[in-house]
Amino acid sequence: MNIDKTPLNAEFYLRDAEIVARNLLGCILVHHDPEGVLMSGRIVETEAYLPDDPASHSFRGPTRRNSSMFLEGGHSYVYRIYGIHRCFNAVTGGGGVGAAVLIRALEPLDGIPEMWMRRYGEPIPAVPGKSGLRGLCSGPGKLCKALGITAGKHDGADITGETSDGKLFISGGRPVPENRVGVGRRIGMTRGRGEEKLRRWRIADSSYLSR
């Protein structure tokens, strides 16, 4: 696919996390790995996390682990969960705010054979089937594994391309009309930690959403 290789600028991210979460739908997450392989996917599901949110890592203030979440909008916040999986977030708002958007799911576009090998540990079959492709990046941990995004290499990276080498960024993609957008509760919330908040956005008719 012909990918727009122009990263979204810093101004895009210097807004409220809920606005950014909605407007990231349809955008393209791009990663050029160290071997120069281009991998990408269309963003189909996001979640917003704000500093007043008990479910947010920033709720209790800055720590060594969440320090990247307090950078200025346009940086990445990548963390590890369960000691295994990584989650990629786009930081939003001004420096010190502590807000971010979790990228929950992608529709795979470029570099699918490489992503398949990373994700499943075997070559992509001649006929992968819709179920295999649908599950390739259908979750925050899955998409990070498929694209080779790690906390060690990418936490705190400038994803606007203005001061970084531009290897990991989000480009504009195609706008998603309101009649295709669904809004609902976030997934996996612990009771009493904001499970009632409607801060998950998705392309409602996408086949690539997280489960």
Record field, number of beta strands: 8
Largest sheet descriptor: 8 strands, antiparallel
Strand-and-helix sequence, N→C? HHEEEEEHHHHEEE
Q: Look at the helices and sheets and give the structural class.
A: alpha+beta
Radius of gyration, CA atoms, in whole angstroms: 16 Å
Please name the CATH architecture: Roll
Summarize the structure.
The protein is an alpha+beta fold and 211 residues long.
Features:
3-methyladenine DNA Glycosylase, Chain A, alpha+beta, 211 residues
Description:
Strand 4 (85-92) and strand 5 (99-110) form a beta hairpin. The model has no long low-confidence stretch (mean pLDDT 91). Strands 1, 2, 3, 4, 5, 6, 7 and 8 form an eight-stranded antiparallel β-sheet that branches. The protein has one domain: Roll (3-methyladenine DNA Glycosylase, Chain A), CATH 3.10.300. It is globular and about 50 Å long. It is of the alpha+beta class. The chain has helices at residues 10-13, 17-23, 112-120, 129-134, 140-147, 151-154; strands at 28-32, 38-49, 76-81, 85-92, 99-110, 168-171, 181-184, 200-203. Helix 3 crosses helix 5. The protein is built from six helices and eight strands, in the order ααβββββααααβββ.
